[in-house]
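Protocol step 4 of 6: record predicted structures for both targets in the notebook before any analysis. Target 1:
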Amino acid sequence: MSSRVLCTLVVLLSLLSILKASCPRAPLKKGKIFQLSNCNLSRLDNEIHKQLSSTITTRVVPAFYSVIFFLGLPANGVALWVLILKAKKMPSTILLINLAVADLLLMLALPFKITYYFMENNWIFGETLCRIVTAVFYGNMYSSVFFLMAISIDRYIGIVHPFCAKSLRDRRRYTCASTGLWLLAIAAVSVFAFVPQTKSFQEPYRVTCHEIWASCTGYKWYTLYFLGLFFVGFVIPSVVILFCYVLIFMALAKKNESYRRVTGLILLVLLIFILCFAPSNILLVLHYLETEWECHNQLYFWYVVALSLTSVNSCIDPFIYCYASNDFWTLVKDTLCIRREENSISSGSTKKSKITLSSDIEILGSGA
């Protein structure tokens, strides 16, 4: 299982290396806006205009975001509703609630990005809202990563160290940990609230939002910032998630019983995490470490595409962590009144007690 995941990561890194190597190594030319210190030019560079007006960025990407929005918004909304009102507030449920909140907030930022891309990367909502949307988009993307990491740690404790689980897994600790992860995510993306994110051009007229490299307005430290964000928001969580699930798999392998469904679920979680988050994070670092203009252009173009792939994770999360549980489906059916007639006949006016959600992995660790 772990070898397949590692092979997938190696393939991704190889493809990204090939992409980076394919960039022409031409010297920087005068007039390129990323090279300037203040970007006071009113004319948009032809190469950048071509990228911002391409069919992929103005049609494919916003259409992709639209599908994610219309699928992810109800999926995360129903999941959050059920987790808050119908499920027992177990420690693992607290993590699932926070993950659903993070994914739902990301969905709320998508309509602005969809409008922006459909209008050929022309931002019409003003500087303040550009900063807010950018911070919300990145903040909730990385908070999702943090809570995915926390969920993997919770499952690791419950299965690999079941005797310590009772003392370690309590609501107070998990509430404090969730608060800390939110504060970490907010601190990580607070830069976007203070750095100007829009840039106006007259020929052709366009107001970009977070598309023009920040160092062109004097923020040279942006490279170090994104490098730190790469390690804190991707590398460390990836190592922790891989470590936890590999040890869970090894613990299950030592038992005589077959856990094929659980093994498949672990493999699915790892593959989705790598495929959704690895390309965008690696391309982001390569983009800000690159010194050649042409490579900046290519890398950022593919980064925008990879970023839309990252958003898919917020659409898939509720189906992996919530809807995969039979107990959760029971609560969803009750919430949507699908079984209203059946419930009214069998239980009359009696209130139904809340159910403890449990996936296959959580069942294995429930003895703790």
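Target 2:
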Amino acid sequence: MSGLTNIVWHESNVTKKDRQEKNNHRSAALWFTGLSGSGKSTVSVALEKRLHELGIHTYRLDGDNVRHGLNKNLGFSPEDRKENIRRIGEVTNLMVDAGLVTLTAFISPYREDRDGARALLGENEFIEVYVKCSVEACEARDPKGLYKKARAGEIKGFTGIDAPYEEPSNPEVIVDTEKQSLEESVQVLVTYLREKGYIV
């Protein structure tokens, strides 16, 4: 750690504000959180497509995708989950600084870790999106067959079965994928972004 004393932040001549003005929209992170199978990836993919069609500069970070590269050395222990989200928070912060509307789809089961990402990004650039769906409905969907494996004891520490999921206490947006269609969920999010002045 002592080597960190020799590292100095190098400022850029192009600011986040400059990038936002060129893009003609503000940048922020939409942090999708919810159980496995709740619809985080599905909703974020559809929202990204809609925003792209509207001319918004976006990038999507997905839990499984990131674990193929940046976080492939991490498992699913509480400590590794914490580090997974810490790294994602840092990458998301860079993408928001680059002027992008960044969509992150991670279970991120611990409130403390999500709050850490919020603190890093700042209140006006962190939009917590709770993809609400009961364990029963997620298990009925089970798109990856993970609940079945968890019930059979093949996966240990599976969120919602034998590991906790802490619901957001005060998310900016809730999409309820048991009650809302995909199109309705996307529209709720686009409306929020417009009403709050992130996009026009």
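Step 5 preliminary note on target 2. The chain has a mean pLDDT of 92. Helices lie at 16-23, 40-53, 63-67, 78-97, 111-121, 135-141, 146-151, 182-195.
Proceed to step 6 after PI sign-off.
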